[in-house]
Write a structure and sequence with these properties.
By secondary structure, the protein is of the alpha/beta class. It has a single domain, classed as NADP-dependent oxidoreductase domain (TIM Barrel). Helices cover about 40% and strands about 15% of the residues. It contains ten helices and ten strands. Strands 3-4-5-6-7-8-9-10 form an eight-stranded parallel β-sheet, covered by helices on one side. α1 crosses α2 and α4 packs across α5. It is globular. The two termini are about 35 Å apart.
């Protein structure tokens, strides 16, 4: 798999990473075995960048990922995040950050974290103070690179003034283009972009369903892409993109990931799946090169994101 450079501090990763969130929310040996197999499939495909967080199962996701990657620890980069309470409120108070990072090191079973993110901006704690605590771990050799997630361009600039930020993680896909507002500051400061939800919560996988096809508590029920009137328009967009993908002998997911890779050389998407075949499909997108005509056609089909 091709490599990409994120930031200017030495972080080099596979062009496509692996988002491990879904590995943390099931129970039982069968669920964990499938999750572990998916992680190892990604590694076998050449993926070297694996993303988790304290929030994902409150340590379960970190433990599973750390165990799955233990045999190849020195060959991969592991990213994790702090910044939430169990009630999903932001908390980046210095003491809380230290507690979470120390716990994450143990949960992952590692002596250092490759990328440490603040998971969400905490308006109660100046970003300079947060990065100051994160820097303590860099200075101690327990963290290699720093990142911010779910933040603002201004916070990125302020954080970078305290300690270099290597990556910013945002929701970014053909359907969700808001993150493009970060491009100017990322390019000015030399920071990479890690794209989560690169397949638009499943809308760009070729397996999207209307709302009545999902459980009553499914998160999609609160997403405007699935709202009546929007869903039909967005489904038509996905179908047009599928026609283009099939004309190139690839899947909709592969086309969508390749589009992200074509946007900027400092973007690394992190699709997540517990299905090994899906993982292999996603990872193969790193070899797909879209032509200028392909990109023009995609822009005509979906010029500014999904219908909301």
């Amino acid at each position: 798999m091709h490599k990409r450079i994120l930031g200017q501090q030495g972080l080099t990763t596979s062009a496509i990473g692996y988002g491990a969130m879904d590995t943390a929310f099931g129970e039982g040996a069968e669920y964990d075995a499938a999750s572990t197999a998916a992680i190892r499939q990604a590694y076998d495909d050449g993926v070297t960048f694996f993303d988790t967080a304290e929030l994902y199962g409150w340590g379960k996701g970190e433990r599973l990922l750390g165990t799955a990657l233990a045999p190849v620890r020195d060959e991969v980069a592991i990213a994790t995040k702090f910044g939430f309470t169990p009630s999903f409120a932001p908390n980046s108070q210095p003491g809380h950050v230290r507690d979470v990072v120390d716990t994450s090191l143990g949960s992952l079973g590692v002596d250092h974290i490759d990328v440490l993110y603040q998971h969400i901006h905490d308006p109660a704690v100046p970003i300079e103070d947060v990065v100051g605590v994160m820097k303590e771990y860099v200075d101690a050799g327990k963290v290699k690179y720093l990142g911010l997630s779910n933040t603002t361009p201004e916070n990125v600039r302020r954080a970078h003034a305290v300690h270099p930020i290597s990556v910013v993680q945002t929701s970014y896909s053909l359907f969700d283009r808001a993150s493009e507002e970060f491009f100017p500051v990322l390019e000015e400061l030399g920071i990479g972009l890690v794209a989560y939800r690169p397949l638009a919560r499943g809308f760009l996988t070729g397996a999207v369903k209307p709302l009545d096809g999902y459980p009553a508590d499914d998160f999609r029920r609160h997403n405007p892409w699935w709202a009546p009137g929007n869903f039909e328009v967005n489904l038509e967009i996905a179908e047009e993109l599928t026609v283009l993908a099939e004309s190139k002998g690839v899947t909709l997911a592969q086309l969508s990931l390749a589009w992200l890779l074509a946007r900027k050389p400092y973007i690394v998407p992190i699709p997540g799946s517990r299905n090994g075949a899906r993982v292999a499909e996603n990872d193969a997108a790193s070899e797909l090169v879209l032509s200028a005509d392909d990109l023009t056609t995609i822009d005509l089909i979906i010029p500014g994101g999904a219908r909301t």
